[in-house]
Amino acid sequence: MELYLGAIGVHPVVRFLARWFAPRFLRGYIVKPLGGTPRNMRTLQSIRAVEPEVSGFLEERDLFLKALDGVEALQGTVNHGLYGLMRAEDAQALVRHHTAHHFHQFGLI
Fold this sequence. Notes:
Helix content is 49%, strand content 7%. By secondary structure, it is mainly α. The protein has one domain. Strand 1 and strand 2 form a beta hairpin.
């Protein structure tokens, strides 16, 4: 979600490639049913999660919910770090889909 909120930067070459391939990737990704996205897809090094600076589950949950609120508050046009300009509604749909994918991946839904 930090990408959607502009908190993480992406290397210019990675950004160029992502914007070149994004339309096809995003169309295919967003229509997959829950569980349809392959597991263990590689994460770009520049956006890979690092060891959290929080001390426990409750703090991590609160950070997650705060970021989710930030994404849900997006309006108009969003400048996504990888995909470039996109409608806020599309960015929110991607975050929801991606979050549901991870919740399904770890057996939470």
